[in-house]
Hints:
The chain is mainly α. 74% of the residues lie in helices and 0% in strands. The protein is globular and about 75 Å long.
Amino acid sequence: MFKKVRGSSLAYILILPAFALILIFTLYPFGRALWTSFHRINPVLPGNPFVGFSNYTSVFSSYYFVKSLRNTLIMIGFTVPIITIMSIAISRLLIENFYGRGILRPAVLIPWVIPSAITGLIWQWLFNGSYGAINALLSRMGVISDYIPWLTEVLTAKFAVMVAFIWAQLPFPIILMLAAMTAIPSDLYDAAKVDGATAFDSFRYITWPHIRTMAVIVIIYETLTAFTSYSIPYAMTGGGPGTATSMISYYIWSLSFDQLQFGKGAALAAIIAGLSLIFIFAIIKAIPSEIMLEEE
């Protein structure tokens, strides 16, 4: 009994540093932001008066909130499924033995090590309507006769930002999927080949059951990342043309540091935190319960 108590105490002692870091860097900032959301805090005005839900109602009634939230949801709806599918396909390719795999595997990590602001500037140059490499390539191939103003038209600007976001986000899901696929026993694929299974059958009955839990993790992670996407859209378009690529995270920054309305910025951040939790809960509930169980 005493050994069990000592072991339990040791476990709590070991997790104490991690809990302290979470408390300092997560719970306290969130609590402070929540407190700020119920006050009017402006460095040019004296005092921090309590305003109740005034900041929340002001944010909810704002046109820019509706527009930026819509842009963010469109980003999530298009990029998250594409990233998930592409990460599965690329991981399936990288797990095979082929010439050049040793070079290709590290190469897919390149977007991950580039800061997101630099990624935005790189893709801004690639999609530049006057001298961008993409227009030059398409023109040489005879696909277009006139250069496309990618970043100054609403639809093409949205497309360009999504392409850059997908490129930047792919490496981490690929790593997760590759780890899940590597853990699958090769004997299962050998037995499937002997039984005459097609590539689709092998994926459906062997690969997918082993990676579906990881796919859920990727979907949740990418949804949260898209919700907080800021650097790439801002570096590429500055939220334009107009508000076509203005994301909810950019609106939070604008309220807090451009307009100096910290209370409203904190209120919007709290709203987004709540929406993120709702999204995660909805994603988990929409997936069959057996997928969420630990694989045998």
